[in-house]
Every structure is written in structure tokens, then in C-alpha cells.
Specification:
Strand content: under 5%
Number of strands: 0
Shape: globular
Largest sheet: none
Number of helices: 11
Low-confidence stretches: 289-294
Helix content: over 70%
Mean pLDDT: 87
């Protein structure tokens, strides 16, 4: 292998080990959650105190499950002879981000609808609603809304972006923007280990990766991620307020239509701007000139070699474990549909 191939192989191997650490942590965390819930029930504390304790414990465990792998990846690459690329953390954000964020959410929503259509073949939605997601109560309480925003929106938006865009994508960029975006998005989708999320999280990964690479900042994608997750929290609030019958579904649909409308409108403005005949934006919409060769595939690897070298032992183990988990969930959904 030449230098570029060895470098690429090292990065893929390090990312594979990082994903295995994540897999181990998230499964240990799942067990810890069950134990913690049992302890809360055993001590018979008030509902409010139990809710606060549970949400904070969940948020802390989730944060560690992603941030420890970030540190591992940095250590693995740092101790080698290859450079570790620091994530982009610039706070200089273009006003165009105000359009890019709703447009990105609309694209993610659209992919979610396609994904839902796919898993409906396996009666998966009913199964996941009953056994995986469940229903929450108390969402109308102000303190619970704040907790949900922190734990389900801010924490995932922060730590998932730092791992998949900040650490993984950044360190794949020397091998080409397109391959870096595809690798980080694919791993982001596999990380969810849920058939109900695999397609739309892949699309979300692409949207977030492009936004990160173009703006040269982790923060626009973090904000998009937080707002996208908050839309799911809002739907939960709507269903609790209006019920899970037709009336609640109508209000949830109205909320989704508003999100999609704003996103499509923003996307239309962006497209018109990009393809405008005048092209009067001299500095690019991201407040910088676009350089065709800017850090593009500075360490190029042939496509066939890239695929072969991507499948390091650690990466293969992670992908197999994730795929098996999704297949088991699909099988459980099928059995649930047969025997329900």
C-alpha cells in the first residue's frame, strides 16, 4: 500500500474501534437505565423527583456514550504517525443558514415519510410504538418540557454532531468530500440501529455533513439537529394535549405541514439564488470564495481500494452487530404482527 492507502486504512480502523466503543457504551447504558429505573421505583420518591432524576441520568449517560468515542478517536489517530484533524468551530455564520436550517429539516422530514412507508411493510410502526418508543405522560408540565428539550434535543444535537461531523467527517475529508460525507452519513445511520430510522438518518447525515463542510462550522448543524429533534418533542406534546385519536393526528399533521411548507419555501429561495442568471454574490453565500481544489482529496484513494480498505476488522464487527440488531427488530415486528 502507498502512503494514502495506509493513512486511509488507519483512519477507517480507528473509526471502527471508535464505533465499537460507542456500541459497547450505548448497550451498557441501556442496562444502566433499567437498573436506575428500578432503584427509583424501590425508593418510592415523588413523580417529579423521579422524572428529573431519570432525565438527567439519561442525558448524562447519552452524552458520555458519544463524547468518550470522540476522545478515543483523537487518541488513536494522535498516537499514530498520521495527523488528527480538528473540527471546525467557527462562530462566523452566514445569514443563509437561516434558510438552510428549515430547508434541511424539510428534507429530513421527507426522508422520514419514505422510511415510514418502507417499515410499514413489516408492521414495524405498531411494534416500535408499543415496545421501543412507548408513550410518555406529563409532557404538558413546563419542567418536563424543559427536561425533554435538554435531554432529547440539546444533548443529542451536541454530542452526535461532535462525533459524526466534528470527529469522523473531518478526519475523512483528506480522502475527498464526497466519500467523507457518505462514510459519516452511513455510520450515522447505522449508529441508530433501528430500521425505522435507517433511511432518514442517512439523509439527515448527508444534510448535516454538507452544512458542516460548506459553512466550516459545527454550530449550524448542531442547531438544525436540535430543532429537528424538538419537532418530534412537539409532536409528543400535541398528542398528549389532544389525544392519540383522529383529533390529535390532525393537529400533528398541521404542525408537520407548517414545518414542510417553511422548509420547501426556504429550499426554493436557495435554489433560485443558486441558479440565478445574475449570480451577483461575489463572495459566495457562505461569505467566502469557493475554491474548486480546496482540500479536495488531498490524499486520494482509488474507489475500489477505498471500499476494500474501509472494511477493517473493527468496522466489519460494528456493521455486523448493527445489522443483526436491525434484522432482529424486523423479525420481532413481523412476529408481533402475526400474533398480536
Amino acid at each position: 500500500m502507498n502512503y494514502n492507502e495506509r493513512y486511509y486504512r488507519k483512519i477507517m480502523g480507528s473509526i471502527g474501534l471508535t464505533m465499537l466503543l460507542f456500541y459497547a457504551l450505548i448497550n451498557v447504558f441501556a442496562v444502566a437505565i433499567v437498573v436506575f429505573e428500578s432503584l427509583l421505583a424501590f425508593f418510592d420518591i415523588s413523580d417529579v423527583a423521579a422524572t428529573v432524576a431519570y432525565e438527567l441520568f439519561y442525558g448524562a449517560g447519552y452524552l458520555l456514550s458519544f463524547m468518550l468515542p470522540v476522545l478515543l478517536l483523537k487518541a488513536l489517530i494522535g498516537k499514530s504517525s498520521y495527523p488528527y484533524k480538528q473540527m471546525y468551530t467557527s462562530f462566523k455564520i452566514s445569514p443563509w443558514v437561516l434558510l438552510l436550517i428549515p430547508a434541511g429539516i424539510a428534507l429530513i422530514y421527507s426522508a422520514a415519510y419514505v422510511n415510514a412507508g418502507f417499515v410499514s411493510i413489516f408492521d414495524y410502526s405498531d411494534f416500535s410504538a408499543e415496545y421501543l418508543w412507548g408513550t410518555q405522560s406529563g409532557l404538558l408540565e413546563p419542567y418536563h418540557i424543559v427536561l425533554q428539550f435538554i435531554v432529547m434535543c440539546v444533548v443529542p444535537g451536541f454530542c452526535e454532531e461532535f462525533l459524526f461531523r466534528g470527529a469522523i467527517l473531518t478526519n475523512c475529508l483528506p480522502f475527498g468530500k464526497t466519500s467523507a460525507i457518505m462514510i459519516s452519513s452511513f455510520l450515522f445511520a447505522m449508529m441508530h440501529q433501528n430500521p425505522e430510522q435507517i433511511l432518514y438518518t442517512f439523509v439527515a447525515g448527508i444534510v448535516l455533513a454538507v452544512l458542516y463542510e460548506k459553512t466550516k462550522s459545527i454550530w449550524p448543524g448542531t442547531v438544525l439537529h436540535i430543532l429537528n429533534n424538538f419537532s418530534s418533542v412537539m409532536q409528543g406534546i400535541i398528542f398528549e394535549k389532544y389525544g392519540y385519536d383522529v383529533f390529535g393526528s390532525v393537529w400533528a399533521s398541521v404542525f408537520e405541514i407548517i414545518i414542510l411548507f417553511l422548509g420547501i419555501l426556504a429550499l426554493a429561495v436557495i435554489i433560485i439564488r443558486f441558479f440565478s442568471k445574475k449570480r451577483d454574490f461575489s463572495n459566495g453565500i457562505y461569505q467566502r470564495d469557493f475554491s474548486v481544489a480546496e482540500s479536495y482529496a488531498s490524499c486520494s484513494v482509488a474507489p475500489k481500494q477505498a471500499v476494500r480498505l474501509f472494511l477493517t476488522p473493527s468496522m466489519l464487527i460494528f456493521l455486523i452487530l448493527s445489522a443483526l440488531q436491525m434484522l432482529i427488530l424486523l423479525l420481532m415486528a413481523v412476529l408481533h404482527g402475526i400474533f398480536a
